[in-house]
Amino acid sequence: MYSASQGGWMVSERRIRVLIVDDHSIVRRGIAFMLSTQPDMEVVGEAADGREAVQKVLALKPHVVLMDLSMPQGLDGIAATEEIKDQFPEVKVIVLTMYDEDVYLCRLLRNGVEGFLLKQTAGENLIQAIRQVMNGDYWFESELPKEIVDEMKQRPEPENCDEDAVILTEREREVLVFLARGYQNREVAKELNISVKTVENHKANMMRKLGVSTVREVIEYGRRNRLLDLYR
């Protein structure tokens, strides 16, 4: 993690209005409870998908949006972030994710996000990250070196940028990992305690999202973008 000061608004001037976006209600409740203990913060609303998030930014006017990246229904976190930053550029967006998804980081940076935070460390860092972005800083937890992240933010067409990065849901990633290990549909279904039909649906969804026609191409995408590290 690193941060860089860019100057800005002092958080002591007023309470920070926060909107929480995550498709899991238990995650939203947990974050809301944690923020409720902070005298300078208030949770003004919650959203379960990207489309609802955009609508609630308009209605509730938060200062900071905490955005889950992988939401299976409606707009995903990247698309919702792009809409929010386009319509409400003054709103700060901190992306929350389960994975160190450098494949998406460039696109998020190019769209003006102020933070990229791993859910595993959110408990200890989230409150600090919120205050920091409200002071004009940014907060990124990533394996990429600081120099590369700075390049992504500043260059019109940085070399380390995949503008076509595709969001796969957590379950799609799990299926992908087992497919890459050579598991057949029935074996994947047994490992994940889902039906064979559901496995087939996940495979079809991944191919549709990536614009490819074979599972092999999906696996190659996963390898290129370090999406197969989930259970190593």
UniProtKB/TrEMBL annotation:
Matching PROSITE patterns: HTH_LUXR_1, HTH_LUXR_2, RESPONSE_REGULATORY
Keywords: DNA-binding, Phosphoprotein, Transcription, Transcription regulation
SMART domains (UniProt xref): HTH_LUXR, REC
Annotated SUPFAM superfamilies: C-terminal effector domain of the bipartite response regulators, CheY-like
Domain HTH luxR-type: 161-226
Domain of life: Bacteria
Domain Response regulatory residue range list: 17-134
Sites of 4-aspartylphosphate modification: 68
GO MF terms, alphabetically ordered: DNA binding
Record bears the keyword Transcription: yes
Matching Pfam families: GerE, Response_reg
Gene Ontology terms: biological process: phosphorelay signal transduction system; regulation of DNA-templated transcription
Classification via InterPro entries: CheY-like_superfamily, NreC/VraR/RcsB-like_REC, Sig_transdc_resp-reg_C-effctor, Sig_transdc_resp-reg_receiver, Tscrpt_reg_LuxR_C, WalR-like
Protein name, per record: DNA-binding response regulator
Organism for this UniProt entry: Kyrpidia spormannii
